[in-house]
Amino acid sequence: MHETPELRPADPVELGAGVVKRSTRLADGRELIYYDDPDTALGPDRAVDARILDPRPETASMRLDVLTGDWITVASNRQNRVMMPGVDADPLAPQTPENPSEVPSRYDVAVFENRSPAFGPALAQATGDAPAAANAPRGLDDLDALGLGRTRTATGRCEVVCFSPDHAGSFGTQTVTRARTVIEAWADRTAALSQLPGIEQVFPFENRGEAIGVTLPHPHGQIYAYPYVTPRTRRVLESIDRTAPELFQHILDEEQGSERVVLRGEHWTAFVPFAARWPLEVHVMPHRHVPDLAETTPAERDELAPLYLRLLRGVDALYDTPTPYIAAWHQAPVNVGRDAVRLHLQLTSPRRAADKLKFLAGSEAAMGAWATEVTPELGAQRLRDAIARAEEAAE
Questions:
Q1: Residues in CB range of 147: below 8 A, 6 or more apart
Q2: Which of 39, 52, 241, 296 has an alpha carbon 20 to 30 Å from 368's alpha carbon atom?
Q3: In angstroms, rounded to a whole number, what is the distance separating the alpha carbons of residues 59 and 346?
């Protein structure tokens, strides 16, 4: 890598809340997008990625489980991913002469295509720089058909979302301004990925902690753009069909009248669900129907940033050490159920005590029959108390 790479400006696009978006490409053709904070100290130029990289891997394949109708991705290129590197080898840090990482320039928030994707590496129709994938899915009817030995190419896209250039941390360690920038990036990427041919659902998420299986300590999340509607969402759609189109509003009304509310604002409510599976589980839901982050209003995004940070800091105040979790943004599919499936966050942790984790053993893992050790009402009270402690400590 050149020690002083040539600089070039990326065309800026102004988004909400004063966030500026700048798009470019990495050395192997993957898309890289910078999202600058409204109060950024960064200049407009971005360094060129001067690395010499191997060609991108072939797109993974999917196999149909005929017993369940689920598609299973087989992505052997993910077997050799980097595992918990030190500061000097962090692939998500800004590049230095000593560390030829994935991001050439200093950044506030950066999003790029995953080098070891489960879906993709890209849809040819979106980039124009690759041949069309053979045996690609041919729509939802094709994917719904059952049969032995069915395979398809795992077209789609996987992106990495770097919340900060710092080596360690999580979403919850960011400032309100930075959290708002990440939310703007999530919304922007949801809109863009939803427009790609063949994409049926877009899923932003954050894995936090080694107990979850995180391989990089750098504060980051991911976005998956699937070529199918995910199994969980299919079950949600079935429940809506069996009950009412307004099922999510009924759930929100019920939860807001319960003792399971953890935080409530003008636009969002955080609550422990009535039938929580995990010892720590909390949902965050908007007060009006909105299918995905791309369709939230500026006011909703403005409130979400501090409310979500309060929740995450409370989660970390439950114990003396940071809590492992999965933060999953469930969004409506791109082409079905958009008037019925409501955007919501599902945050779950396997931590059931300071020194105990819940493992998915026989009943949960094999049969999908759950048992929980913590009542949802007690879980909500613990979270409210932890949020209060975190805010008192911050004063």
A1: 64, 66
A2: 241
A3: 29
CA distances from 3 to 34, 95, 100, 106, 110 (A): 21, 10, 10, 14, 21
Q: What is the pLDDT of residues 40-95, one digit of tens each?
A: 999 999 999 999 999 888 899 999 999 999 999 998 877 666 667 788 899 999 99
Count, residues in the chain: 395
Residue 337 neighbours by CB distance under 10 Å? 20
Structural domains in the chain, CATH included, are 7-228 (3.30.428.10), 233-394 (3.30.428.10)
Whole-number Å distance between alpha carbons of 121 and 114: 8
Say how far apart CA 356 and CA 78 lie, in whole Å: 29
Q: How far apart are CA 69 and CA 286, in angstroms?
A: 31
pLDDT in tens, 286-297: 999 999 999 999
Token reading at 385: 């108390």
| Mean pLDDT in order along the chain per 10 residues (395 residues) | 51 95 95 97 93 92 97 84 79 95 97 94 50 84 97 96 96 98 98 96 96 90 97 98 98 98 98 97 98 98 98 97 97 98 97 91 93 95 98 92
Enter the pTM of the model: 0.94
Contact between residue 226 and residue 190 where contact means Cβ atoms under 8 Å apart: no
The active-site residue, picked from 2, 167, 218, 220, is: 220
Whether 283 is a known active-site residue: answer no
